[in-house]
Specification:
With 132 residues, this protein is mainly α. The chain is built from 2 helices and no strands. It is rod-shaped and about 175 Å long.
Amino acid sequence: MAGQNDEVLRALGRLEESVRLLREDFQDEKSAARESRAAIHTRLDRQQDDLSHLETTVVLSGQTVAQQRDVIAGLKETVEKDIRPTIDEVKDIKRLGRTASMIFVSLGFTAGGVFFTFWDSVRPWLGKLLMR
């Protein structure tokens, strides 16, 4: 009987050791799972923060674009109301200047033509006038 009890006790000891090892393994698995979940939650929190930051950036960019559109519309209105008439007047003045220039050039050519045409008749008269 003593031999049987020893064997039962040894089997019981082995069983107890196996249960202890299983518990350790389960504890290790639980710890690893807890760490893995914590890392996943950390990454998800970081992505959520990044996403909210991105949304804020997109909203601010949209507001900036809207402000720029308003400024551009105001500038276009200012150009059309205030600057466009001035530009048109300058164009008219330039056109008038070119026209006057062409008239003066034509008058110069005409005067030159008349001068050369009458040169033969004016030369003796001019010679008499200057020789006096």
